[in-house]
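User: Batch of two.

Assistant: Item 1 of 2:
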Amino acid sequence: MQKTRMTFCLASAACDISITAVLCYLLHGSRTGFRSYVSSALVERALAELFNSTDNLVNTLMIHAINRGVITRCSVVFFLVRYETVT
């Protein structure tokens, strides 16, 4: 049973890492360099600075993808450790 859980954990890690890597690769390839000119009167200044170009938006999406992968990976490790300590 121990070998099965470790295999599942490694397979889960490989899937998380590969999905995050492919998503970042595809997002990085979709950069256009197009500048978006947003009126500060319509949008808050912080949002206008954050999303002032599509490249910044793509960077933000890549950061969110990496963070989601890390959170998913940490939760799987936490539950695996918790399961091992309880049983």
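Item 2 of 2:
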Amino acid sequence: MATDPRTTPARALPRRWTQRVRKVGNSLVVTIPREAVAALNLAPGQYVGFDLEPLELRPRLRPEVQAALDASWEEHADIYRELGR
């Protein structure tokens, strides 16, 4: 069941958000998720504090794709290694 952002208390929010940095005009911006805006009762022009930390996200394969890749690697590892040269 999804939580209603209008009634989510601030203490129930995730401790960490991952947001993409976007370019708007000459500025870089990070949006604040709707749930956080509602729970913290934020308004335009209000100041907020936050810590910045660059993240490196790595995609994960779905389990069935990973299994197929692993099986193919076992059967053709020498060919893959040669292609990687």
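The radius of gyration is 21 Å.
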